[in-house]
């Protein structure tokens, strides 16, 4: 009876239980084992049922290529041979769809038999895979946000985004294309393939009804779960050669308009799942937001530069025109003179007595009374007054001044200020007289001018205001191979090479409008060859200042341009490649040292050049071998391999180097060139991979609600910084979560899981047993039986380092985006309790609220109809998950659409918005 009872207990267990004797015979098995044996026999015909020989079945499976069986067979043999007393092995069955995971454990019975227990862990493995998947995506998002915070230009933003997609995002190919407004995309960045293998994307004509077209027309994303044959044959060949199976296309926006697409590819079919799509669309929005910020910052900087430029030009113009300005306060009798006016009067820059009386004291005594009357007249007149007079400078020189003054009235219409300008016209008067005298001489010199033009090395091209050629020097004919008569009456646009026609026409039109600029364009010679020329110009004006045409100076720069391009390419190549490039002379002294060499070894070029390469870079114990290698180079041999070198700080590290000899045309040895790569990281890769599991701190937990017990894995205890013998319960587990949003969020999540079976995936803050604050990702699911929740289970991962970086990036973004206030955006600052700390002037206008009526109040009390809308969802995401959000939404309370950026910081949330 007891045996039957034990048998019933075993049959009730979910685990597969079997007992194997020393010969391998299965002498007993529970119901779960028997059912599993039937399933496997139906799949592969191998019998592991009760009464069969497990060893014979295992050997047959091994012979048929079932890999995991070999490990199980060895473990059972090890127990029977008394090498171990127990074992536990995890394995995967891939011959079924979907795949199944099991843990098989074994132990020796006192009778010499082995009891086997197999438990299916497929659900747990799926959860772990989902966590790994989520971690990859969050890391992807974190790296993208870091790039967005620190990018220097749009090109680097696009390049880094594609590179991160491959290195961190786990995708197999990524590229960004910008639309030309028609049916073509131009690739601006890619990663996962050499650019020359995807050069067809430099001008890619996309399918009208395809995913790219839909995204450019406004779709938030388009997924291709299984990439089909496309009209572009080169694209099909590339996809097949790379084994790409699925793709997603995301929009890149600027100023609210789609300007291009972010395209990601995977070698797996159906790779893109809903949880990933949400993050990917968020990444695309973040990149678009960065473009808008960069554009606005550039506009702001351009505005500042223009203002500075105008101030400089105003000062230069006043100085050149010998013109200054002044302001006289009628009430205080004080005055302010510009630097230019002080210079005209011969006064120092820090002259303390800037007043009306001081000014009158410098007026010539014969003109002083008249000037005093004019000044009094100006104080009572409502028009501008002009007059001329003489002054005596502080050095005694007499000058002639023209002044214009007018009165500024206050709110009551009473004169409050006298403002004006003074211009020294002494030289102008002298010049007018000289000009009349020189006109005759000028006419006589015109014929000489034409002779000089023909002698200079530059060509002269003159056009009238219609753009027609009225004169070309012989040098122009020499450059373009045309006879002067063939150029006469033609416009220059007919001779522009088609490769740069659009830009060239625009530049020449700028010249015709009077803009001073020099530029290079390609013209087309009579022999149908491109000729690059440099153009500078001057506008011809008549005596009334009207534009009569354009004089252009043409210089042939074709040879120079080709040489410059070649040298520039070589210089950029050596400067930008990631490998260190070092060249020496025949004695081994360094003659060239690129940027990568400086970064790798620590010596600047000026410190490295002239030193012997072996003495500078090779540790003393390895120098004899390098001397031998240098001698081999002299004989014409090259060397490729790994060598040990040291940095400036003495650190020894390995590089993979290629050393090649340099010979002149007479085969005389002139030195060597070395290209080296630091392989330290590659050497460390294996050790780093071994440490990953420990670093990630990923643990599991399980709560049995029926028995009111809670189990934590050892890793979970380590994360919470509690002793290994710590026994948790539900109340104590929740108490670790930081009071406030974190504890409220986990409490609500568990409540919803128990009541409606809703799973959770949250990033929350805990206070450990040692009192340390730590960010964790907690994931949980519920198990129900007969409509009642009987179990909660899940995992906890330590993400403190990653989360700290994200918070830091968000705070940096917050500071950077304060420039939006000066560009017309409204913004609101909230604390962690959702109370308004600041309400900008533009926010008052947009939201029709006064700042004094909202400061200190809860935002949801001020705008109650925003609760339950997208505004509340996105703001809570930004506040509690500490990530920036960007969205557009309609606010019914104001009947308006808004574009919103919400940026979290350590104290709360800053919300930027504008009406659409």
Overview features:
916 residues, alpha+beta, Beta-Lactamase, six-stranded antiparallel sheet, five-stranded antiparallel sheet
Please tell me about this protein's structure.
- The chain is α+β, with helices and mostly antiparallel strands and 916 residues long.
- The protein is 41% helix and 29% strand.
- The protein folds into 7 domains: 2-120, PAS domain (Beta-Lactamase), CATH 3.30.450; 128-297, Beta-Lactamase; 323-424, Beta-Lactamase (2-Layer Sandwich), CATH 3.30.450.20; 456-558, PAS domain (Beta-Lactamase); 577-684, Beta-Lactamase; 695-798, PAS domain (Beta-Lactamase), CATH 3.30.450; 803-915, PAS domain (Beta-Lactamase), CATH 3.30.450.
- α5 (122-150) packs parallel to α9 (274-320) and α5 (122-150) runs parallel beside α26.
Detail the poorly predicted runs.
Answer: 435-445, 688-695, 812-824
How many discrete structural domains? Answer: 7
Overall helicity: 40-55%
Overall spatial form: extended
Mean pLDDT: 81
Number of helices: 30
Radius of gyration: 41 Å
- What is the H level of CATH, i.e. the homologous superfamily of the largest domain? GAF domain
Strand content: 25-35%
**DSSP E strands, number:** 36
The largest pleated sheet is described as: 6 strands, antiparallel
Strand order of the largest sheet: 8-7-6-11-10-9
The level-1 CATH class of the largest domain = Alpha Beta
Q: CATH topology of the largest domain, what is it called?
A: Beta-Lactamase
Q: Which structural category do the helix and sheet elements fall into?
A: alpha+beta
Distance between the termini: 81 Å
Assigned CATH architecture of the largest domain = 2-Layer Sandwich
